[in-house]
Write the C-alpha cells for this entry.
Amino acid sequence: MAAMLSNLPSPAVSERSPGIPLLATPLHFDVVVYHAGPAGIAAAAAAASSGCSVLLADPAPLAATAATDSPNVTLLRQTDIVAVHRPPGVDRITALILKTRKSSDSPAHDRLTLTCGIVIDASAAGDVLKLCGETWHSAMSQPLTAPWGTQSHSETAAGDVRTLLHADSVACCDHDSSQIRESSPSALPIQIPWGAVVPRHLKNLLIPRGDSATGKAAGCAAAQALREQTPVQQLYVPALQQRLIATGCSLISVSDVRPEHPDFAAVQWWGLQGGLHGLYKTPVPFRIPDTPPHEQSTEDRPDHAAQLAQPLSPTLAKRWQTIALIAGVTPQELPAITPDTTRGEFIRHVWSLAMRTAPAFSVRSTSPHAAPRINPAALPGTHPPGEVDNQQLAALVIRNADGLPGIVVDDCDAELQGAWQYSTHTPPYVGRGYLHDMNTGKGRKSATYRPQLPKDGWYEVRLSHCRNIRRSTNTLITISHADGQTSLRLNQQLTPEHGQLFRTLGSFRFTAGSQHWVRISNDDTTGKYVIADALQWIPVDVVRNASGTTESR
C-alpha cells in the first residue's frame, strides 16, 4: 500500500446520514492508529511488521514519519477523527469519519469514511474513546487512576523495591515518560498490565498510554487479534508476551539482563511468574509530608538485578521451587539444588521445561481464564509469590481453567459485597489465587458468581476451595436455579474430592443465560476464614457419560 493517502482514489460521497457524509465504498485498513506520537508510531510499526495494512492519522501538520518506512503504513497528516460509528447494541467500532484539513498533500475531499479491524487510540486524551461516549476511568478493564502503582489488583510484597507484579504485564515503561512520571513519581520503572490498554466493552479498540513500549504492545496485540479473529479483551496474553519478549521488549525491569543478553527471554518470563519479586528490600524511605505511604519515594533505590551468577540460597530455592510448580513444572522435574547451584542455572532449567508447552503465537483462546486475573475489587495479598504453607500442594494449582470441563467462573469475575482479600498462601487454587473474608465483617460479606450457561439442562455445581484448620466449618452457599433457591452449609476444612480442590454441591436444573448464580456468604462463621475461589457448572450428561472429564484435573 502506498505510504501517502494522497495516492488513494477519492471515493464518491453517498447520501448523508444526520450531519455526517458517508462514502459509498469506505476505505478499509486492518488497523487505524490515531495520533502519531511515540505510542502511535510504535503501534503502527509493530502492526505493519506483522503484515497488517495500517493507517496512521495525526492532527498535526508535520507528523513523525518514521513509521512510513514500511510500505504497509499509510500516513495522513492534519487529520481529526470527528465521528465514530458504533451502532446501538454493537460492541465494535464499525466505521470512523476522518476530517482532513486542506493542504498540498491532502485529498480533494475533507471527510473520509474508514472501516478497519482494530482501532488504536494513541492520543493522550483518549479522543476516540470520548467519541464513543466513555471516559478513561469507566471504560478501562483496569482503571487508569493515577498512579498505576496503587492498583488494588496488583500483587505486592512487603518491603520489596519492586512494588508491583503484573503477571499480565505487556510493557515496562521508561521512567522518562512524562505521563508515567506525573502519575507515579516514586514507583519507577513500572509495569503496565494488559487490562490497562484494553477497554471494557469495545472489542476492537486498544488504548496505549505513555510511551512507545505500550504502543508496541498495542500494535502486536492488534495483529494477534486479527490473526486469531478474537476480541481484544479475550486475547491470549501469554502468547502476546512471548512475541514482545522475542522482539526485545522488557515486560519487567532487570538492570543486569538487557535484551541483548542470551538469558533475556528466560529472565523476563521468570520475572512474570514472580521469581524476581522480593529479591531486594526497599531502603529507608524518604517521606513526603501529606503523601500516602504507597506514594512515598525512597532513597538510594537499588537496581532491579537478577544476579544470575550468584548461588541460590536455600530459602530462595524453596520459594523458587514453589513458583516453578505453580508454573507447571512437575515435582520430578525440579532441579536438584546444591551449594553451587546458581540463580541462572535454576532459571534456565525451568525456562527450558516451560518452553515445551509455551504458547504458540497462533494460540486462540476465548476464555477469560487464558490470562489469570485478580478481582479488581479485592484487597491485595500480603505474601510474595511462592511463599506458601504447603509446597507439595502447589503442584495442584490450576493456573488456566480452560482445561476444566463445563463452565467455570473464577473469583476474578465474582461480584463482591464487603472487603475480601486476595491470597496465594494456601494452595491449591484456580487462576492467580483465591479470596478470603479476612475473618471480619461476619454477616456482611458475600461473593456472587454468575455463569453464562449455553443451554437449558441439569448441571452439577462444584465449588473450589483450599483447606486448613483456620477455614470455616459452616460456610453458607446459596444456589439460584430454575426451580428456586437451595442453601447449604459447607465445611471448608475438609479435603475436596475432585483434585483436592473442587467439591460437589449437587445437581440442579438451570436455564440458558446468566440469570442464575451461586453466592458464598460469611454469615455465622465467627472465628474462621471463609474462602471464595472458583465455581464450576458441568452438564450432568458429561459427568455421567465421559469418565475422562469427571475429575477436575
Remarks:
- The longest strand covers residues 111-121.
- The mean pLDDT is 81.
- Residues 1-253 form a domain with the FAD/NAD(P)-binding domain fold (CATH 3.50.50.60).
